[in-house]
Automatic annotation (TrEMBL), chains A, B:
Its cofactor is pyridoxal 5'-phosphate. It comes from the Bacteria. Signal peptide: none annotated. The lineage of its organism: Bacteria, Bacillati, Actinomycetota, Actinomycetes, Geodermatophilales. GO terms for molecular function: kynureninase activity; pyridoxal phosphate binding. Pathway: Amino-acid degradation; L-kynurenine degradation; L-alanine and anthranilate from L-kynurenine: step 1/1; Cofactor biosynthesis; NAD(+) biosynthesis; quinolinate from L-kynurenine: step 2/3. It catalyses: L-kynurenine + H2O = anthranilate + L-alanine + H(+); 3-hydroxy-L-kynurenine + H2O = 3-hydroxyanthranilate + L-alanine + H(+). This is Kynureninase.
Length: 421, 421
C-alpha cells in the first residue's frame, strides 16, 4: 500500500462516494487545520437535509396539523422500520420497528426470547460486549432466575467460534452478540455464528449498533432471529435518536414484549380492557413514538441507503486498511499496538490502537483537531465514516497522531480521567 | 354564571395569562372561522420558541459541537428533570429524570416498586385507568406471579375512596393511579389517597400525564412515592416528547430499574464488568437520552413554570366551569350528558360529555373547526389549555357544538370508526 499523502488524494479522486461529503455539515472543509472527525461511529455528522426535515415536523405537522397529524405519525415507526429494513438491514417489510433506545429494545427482545424458551435457563453473551448489552443480559437473567454464560472474546480479535461453540448446549435460550465489536471493530462470522446458535436450538439476538451503515447486514438472508441497533452512529440520526428492533416474521407471533404498552396493543384506540398484542412487529411498540427524532433518522438512514452498503463497506475496508498500514509505519515504532483484526474482511469500519497512555493521547489528538474515542482500558479508537470521511482525512489524522507521539506533547495532559456524571 | 359571549370576552380581558397566547403557534388567531383547538390535553400547541431551541441543538450542538457536546448533553436528563421538579412537579432536585416514554417509565418504576416489596403479591389499579397503565400493570403482575386488583372507578366521577380503601391490605405492593382521569378529568383526592395507600404499607405510583401543567402537583409536599408523566400534553413538548419519572429521594436506594442500561450505571464511562446502579435518580436511566426531544420539552415546560401552576389551575377551573354551565344550558336539552365531576375542585382541566352518537359528533365538530377528542365508548372530551385557550374559544366551541346538535348535521358522518393501525 502506497502510504504517501498523494496516494490518499488519489483514492479520494477515485472515490465513488465523494459526492456525499457535501451533504453533511462540516465534512467538506479543507485546509491544514480542519477538524478531522474520526468519531462518526460514536455520533455521526449532521446531514444538511436534517434541519429542514425536523422543521417540517415541528412547524408544519405539529404546529399546524396538531393532532390531525397523527394520521401520518401513527404509522411512522413501521414505515421508517420498513425503510431501514430495505435500505440498510436487508430485511423485508413488517419486521423492523423504530423507537425507544437500543437498550430498551434489547431488553424487550431478550426478555421476550427468554420467555419463549421456558425450558432453557442460560443466556450467553461475550465478556467484552458493550456494557449496556452485558448489563441487560445480567438483569434479565437475574429477574428470570437464569444463568449467564459470559464467554471470553479476544478483545482485539473478536469472537472465537470454538469458544462460542463450547458455550452452546440445550440449556441456552438466547445468545446476544454484537455484529461489530465496539472496542476492536472485529466483525463476527455471521454464517458460522448463526449455524452454531441455531444448531443448539437457541435464539440469536444481534446488536447491530456498530455495524449498521458500515458493513452489509443481511438479516433475512442470514436467517437472523432478532436484532437491535442504534441510529446515531453510521446512520447519522442525531444525538439520542430512536433505535430500531428486528424480529423475523415467523417468530413474531410467539414473542411478547415484557412491556405491555398501548402502542403494542391490537386495536389500540379501542382502548379495550385487556392487553392483546398486535399481530405484527407493532406488538413490540410501547409508548408514543418519538416523532421529531424519527424525522432525523429518516434523513440519515436514507443517505446510507442511497450510497448503498456495498460501496460503503468497500470504502470502509480501504480506509481501515490505510489506518492499519499507517499505524504499522508510524505508530507501532513509537510503542503503539494495533488492537483490531489485521484482516479487512474481519473488521467493521473502525480501527483501535492500544497504548498505556491512551487517555493522554486521546486528549492530545483532540487538542490537535483530531476526534477519536478513548475506550477502556488503554485504547484509542478511530472511526472514519465511509459516507463523508476522506482518505486524506485519515492520512492527516494519522500524521498528527505520529507528531504527538514524536514530540511527546501528550504527556502534558492529565493521566487520570475526570468523572463524567 | 353569566353565559353571554360578552361575559366570556370579559373573562379574557381580565385573564392574567392572556399574554402567553401570543407565544404559541396559531393560538392568537381571531375571526369567526378560526380553529378552536380543545385538544391541548392530547397534544399541546407548539411554543413559538421551540423551533429555535431545536435548531440550536441540531445545527449548533450536534452539527458543530459533535461528540464534544456530550459535555452538555450528559447531564441534560437530570438538569431538565430538576427544572420540571421545580417548575411543575413540586419536587426538589435529584428526584426527576427525563427520558423514555411514559409507558417505559411506568414499567420501570412499577417493576422496581414490586420488587422492593417481595413479601407482597398484589398490584392495584383502577378498571378505568388509561389503557397503557392497565396493560403495564397486568404485564408486571404476570411476569412476577402477582395478582391485579382492578378496582372500579366511576368513569364519570372518578375514584371512590371507600372502594380504594376496601382494596388495600397487607398484600398490596404498589397502587397505580392517575391523578387526573384521562376520560372524565376527575381529580383524585391526593391527601386521602396517599394516607390510605401508606396506611396499608404500599407504594403509590402516580400517572401525572393528564395533570401536570393543569393542576398543582406537589409531589414532595404530598409525600408521593413514585410518579411518571407525559410532556406532550399540557407541557407542550411536542409529539412523542420524552416523558419523566419521579422517585422520592429516600426510596431511590432501595429501588432498582428492571432495565439495566449503561445510562443507569455508576461510573458509566468506566464501562465496568458488572452493573452497579448509579447512586441517585440517574439509576433509572437506560439508554442514550433523546437530546433533540428534550430541547423541545424544556421550552414547553418552561412556559408552564413561568405562568405558574396556581394561575393555570385557577383559569382551568373557570374554563371548565364555563364548559359545564354551557353544557347544561345548550347540550343537555339535546340529549347530551355531563360525564365529568360537576364540582370544579374535583376536576383537572378537561370536561367530557356523553352522547350515544359521540363519534359522529366528534367528526362533525372537527368539520366545523372544533378539535375535541373522542373517547370510548360514547364520549366527547373537551380540553381547553389554560396557557393559550381563550374563554371565547370555549364559548364559540360550545356554540358550534349546539349548532351541530340543532341541525343534526352530525348524523351525516360515519357511525363506525375506521380502524387506525
Amino acid at each position: 500500500m502506497d502510504l504517501s499523502r498523494a496516494a490518499a488524494e488519489a483514492l479520494d479522486a477515485a472515490d465513488p462516494l465523494a459526492g456525499f461529503r457535501a451533504r453533511f455539515a462540516g465534512a467538506d472543509e479543507t485546509g491544514p487545520d480542519r477538524l478531522l472527525y474520526l468519531d462518526g461511529n460514536s455520533l455521526g455528522r449532521m446531514p444538511l437535509a436534517t434541519p429542514a426535515a425536523v422543521t417540517r415536523v415541528v412547524e408544519q405537522e405539529w404546529a399546524r396539523g396538531l393532532v390531525g397529524s397523527w394520521s401520518q405519525w401513527i404509522g411512522a415507526a413501521t414505515r421508517l422500520g420498513d425503510e431501514l429494513g430495505a435500505g440498510v438491514l436487508g430485511a423485508g417489510p413488517g419486521q423492523v420497528l423504530v423507537g425507544d433506545s437500543t437498550t430498551v429494545n434489547l431488553y424487550k427482545l431478550l426478555a421476550a426470547g427468554a420467555a419463549a424458551r421456558p425450558d432453557r435457563d442460560v443466556l450467553v453473551c461475550t465478556a467484552d460486549d458493550f456494557p449496556t448489552d452485558r448489563y441487560v443480559v445480567a438483569g434479565v437473567a437475574e429477574a428470570r432466575g437464569m444463568t449467564v454464560r459470559e464467554i471470553d472474546a479476544d478483545i482485539d480479535e473478536g469472537l472465537d467460534l470454538a469458544v462460542l461453540a463450547a458455550a452452546l448446549d440445550e440449556r441456552v435460550a438466547v445468545v446476544v452478540l454484537s455484529l461489530v465489536a465496539y472496542r476492536s471493530g472485529a466483525l463476527a462470522d455471521v454464517a458460522e455464528v448463526t449455524r452454531l446458535v441455531h444448531e443448539a436450538g437457541a435464539l440469536l439476538l444481534w446488536d447491530l449498533s456498530h455495524a449498521v451503515g458500515a458493513v452489509p447486514v443481511d438479516l433475512d438472508a442470514t436467517g437472523a432471529d432478532l436484532a437491535v441497533g442504534c441510529t446515531y452512529k453510521y446512520l447519522n440520526g442525531g444525538p439520542g435518536a430512536p433505535a430500531f428492533l428486528y424480529v423475523r416474521r415467523d417468530l413474531q407471533e410467539e414473542l411478547r414484549s415484557p412491556i405491555q404498552g398501548w402502542f403494542g396493543q391490537r386495536d389500540q384506540f379501542e382502548m379495550g380492557p385487556a392487553y392483546e398484542p398486535a399481530e405484527g412487529i407493532e406488538r413490540f411498540g410501547v409508548g408514543t413514538p418519538p416523532v421529531i427524532g424519527m424525522a432525523a433518522v429518516e434523513v440519515g438512514a436514507g443517505l446510507v441507503a442511497e450510497a448503498e452498503i456495498g460501496a460503503l463497506a468497500a470504502k470502509g475496508r480501504t480506509m481501515t486498511d490505510l489506518l492499519v498500514a499507517l499505524g504499522d509505519e508510524w505508530l507501532v515504532p513509537a510503542g503503539v499496538a494495533l488492537a483490531s483484526p489485521r484482516e479487512a474482511a474481519r473488521r467493521g469500519s473502525h480501527v483501535t490502537f492500544a497504548h498505556p497512555q491512551a487517555w493522554q493521547l486521546t486528549q492530545a489528538l483532540v487538542d490537535r483537531g483530531v476526534v477519536p474515542d478513548f475506550r477502556t482500558p488503554d485504547r484509542v479508537r478511530l472511526g472514519p465514516a465511509p459516507l463523508y470521511t476522506r482518505f486524506v482525512d485519515v492520512w492527516d489524522a494519522m500524521d498528527r497522531f505520529r507528531a504527538i507521539l514524536a514530540d511527546r506533547s501528550y504527556e502534558a495532559f492529565p493521566a487520570e480521567r475526570a468523572r463524567v456524571t
